[in-house]
Amino acid sequence: MSGFDALRNIPLLSRVGADRADLLRTDVEAAAAGWPDALLLRVDRRNQVMIAGGQVVLGPASALGDAPPEHAVFLGRLRDGRHVWGVRAPLEPPEDGSDAQVLDLRRAGEIFDDTSAQLVATATALLNWHDQARFSPVDGTPTKVARAGWARVNPLTGQEHFPRIDPAVICLVHDGHDRAVLARQAVWPERLFSILAGFVEAGESFETCVAREIAEEVGLTVTDVRYLGSQPWPFPRSLMVGFHAIGDPEQPFSFNDGEIAEAGWFTRAEIRTALAEGDWNAATNGTSSSRLLLPGSISIAREIIESWAALD
């Protein structure tokens, strides 16, 4: 083995800066009691938020009324005790008049502080789920929000439905030494490469999914599948579970499912050079001439690649 057994840093969207305060989801009175002093995170229809100074803009929740509206979701409690709620609503600038910009989580994640990253990731995932879960999957009855936004209830049967999460694996395949596999999806622009990923199927473990997806996408047989870490990916409601595995550079690539356009074995030195060039944004704004461009820091893929590349 290569000695690669851990990520150097917590993935950006896995950071924790607030108390999720899950007990308040079932204690509706206690959650509502904090509303007068609570803060509000607005997320628009494009999943954008208002950002100022590396923090998401939080306005007074009381601007929406004397109590949480039905569509509000409880996001947690800050270190000073104030509650934070999220809503799908048009964005509003900071009350103090400070400069702000509108960004989505993909573009803002790397500049967020820990609390903002947690709040926006949670709000985006919950609100995306509510947008698509307004009717019971069993009988089509319109459902109602419950548990401070963490569930929906069928009013006819009392059946509760909870936020759906779609688990996906993402894996760096390497030779145990100095080379790793990077691949480009057919729908990606030229030069944009990353590690391999895919959704977990019913009745399948994460490790089995890793082996199956890599065989389907690039035709390699992998061994020694090892867990590295995970990250929420609320686009719209995924959980990325990171791994690394050993592959054989002598085994030819075979693109079996049509998803991958090209793949290659790259040395650690080549990947370090690519990391120094920046990320995918460098390709779209024309600032990089590198033959290899890598995922942005918001993705766990970047952290996995950087952690492997940093090994001696």
Automatic annotation (TrEMBL):
PANTHER family: NAD-CAPPED RNA HYDROLASE NUDT12, NUDIX HYDROLASE, NUDC SUBFAMILY. Pfam families: NUDIX (PF00293), NUDIX-like (PF09296), Zn_ribbon_NUD (PF09297). Belongs to the Nudix hydrolase family. NudC subfamily. This is NAD(+) diphosphatase. It comes from the Bacteria. Its cofactor is Zn(2+); Mg(2+). One of its GO terms (molecular function) is NADH pyrophosphatase activity. NCBIfam families: PRK00241.1. It catalyses: a 5'-end NAD(+)-phospho-ribonucleoside in mRNA + H2O = a 5'-end phospho-adenosine-phospho-ribonucleoside in mRNA + beta-nicotinamide D-ribonucleotide + 2 H(+). It is an enzyme of class 3 (hydrolase). GO terms for cellular component: cytosol. Its EC number is 3.6.1.22. Keywords: Hydrolase, Magnesium, Manganese, Metal-binding, NAD. Residues 163-288 form the Nudix hydrolase domain. SUPFAM superfamilies: Nudix. The gene is nudC. Transmembrane segments: none annotated. One of its GO terms (biological process) is NADP+ catabolic process.
